[in-house]
Amino acid sequence: MVGTGGIVTGSHLTALRDHADRVDLVAAVDVATDRLDAFRATAAEGGTFEVTGYSDATAMLAAERPDLVLIGTPPSLHREQTVAALKAGAWVLCEKPLCLTLAEYDEIAAAEKEAGGPYASVVFQHRYGSGAAHARELLAEGALGRPLVAHCQTTWHRDTAYYAVPWRGRWETEGGGPSMGHGIHQMDLLLHLLGDWTEIRAMAGRLVHTVESEDVSTALVRFESGAMATVVNSVLSPDEVSRIRIDCADATVELTHLYGHRNDDWVYTPAPHVRDEPDRQRRWRTPAADLPSSHGAQLSALLDAMRDGVRPPGSGPDARRTLEFIAALYKAAFTGRPVRAGEIAPGDPYYDAMHGDHPEWAPKAATATTKES
């Protein structure tokens, strides 16, 4: 375990305990000795894990030769730590975002092995609940009719104390604002459900917080299927909610939750012309087995992939699509022009930085360097 902060002590440690029959937590890395010691003590409760502590990830990789490395450090460290773990032969499950740019993502991909792993996955736990799996299956088989209109909403609230943490709100250390650090989960789930996107138009703003990145963004998206969607990401919303709604030809499917969902959070509403078809509507009902979305659900899928020597979900081109979507959202918002899938490639400023060196959005030092060069 690299990093032992709150998300690790909570979600990741819980997931590891739930899978203690399949995995052993042998080491943890943190530069803060007090935090590391507290984590090791917590992990040892009940005799679950005996964890060796390290202050340096390189030393841990050399000494332990782990099969799997979980990364829960601030985003600016993800690329370096992920590449180091892959080169040491370990699979990786890294907190979102896996990295800060498409250029960094491609560097990680180059460090993976083509056949049999190791591979790097990003934490997109909202894909893995039974409700999400059921909805994706229904959409894929056309059981709800053709997808037509969608809405993806991450409207949360973060105060000034939240942004007092030095790495938050800065491009160099967080990679972006709510589009990158908060709404990424719902946008990834939207893409997981609807598939490839083709075009995006967007706006972004700093309406409240004094930060480098945005505190709100909105987007209009066209999918390869022809479906169209609206996307809203905010940290300015007192009434917090995470929501996805997809209107299909025969039914609407809607998910409403905050930080995680269960089967009951998914609602299916039939179109008027199918309201008298009870057998069809029974097919839409969420399964009896209720697997909540969680880090544990994703870890289970990753361990299965490791066992089978196959690429896990939430990695490779699948996860890159989500990062490209966010880069395109920023490019569309900052340039005022529509952006198409595949457009952001090496040589495009938004390939190397989410702010694209835009004079109104890039850090002042980065803008000055660009002008001087």
TrEMBL record:
Domain GFO/IDH/MocA-like oxidoreductase: 134-253
GO MF annotation list: nucleotide binding
Gene3D superfamilies with a match to the protein in the record: Dihydrodipicolinate Reductase, domain 2, NAD(P)-binding Rossmann-like Domain
Protein name from the UniProt record: Gfo/Idh/MocA family oxidoreductase
SUPFAM superfamilies attached to this UniProt entry: Glyceraldehyde-3-phosphate dehydrogenase-like, C-terminal domain, NAD(P)-binding Rossmann-fold domains
Residue intervals of the Gfo/Idh/MocA-like oxidoreductase N-terminal domain: 1-117
InterPro entries membership: Gfo/Idh/MocA-like_OxRdtase_N (IPR000683), Gfo/Idh/MocA_Oxidoreductase (IPR052515), GFO_IDH_MocA-like_dom (IPR055170), NAD(P)-bd_dom_sf (IPR036291)
Pfam family, one: GFO_IDH_MocA_C3
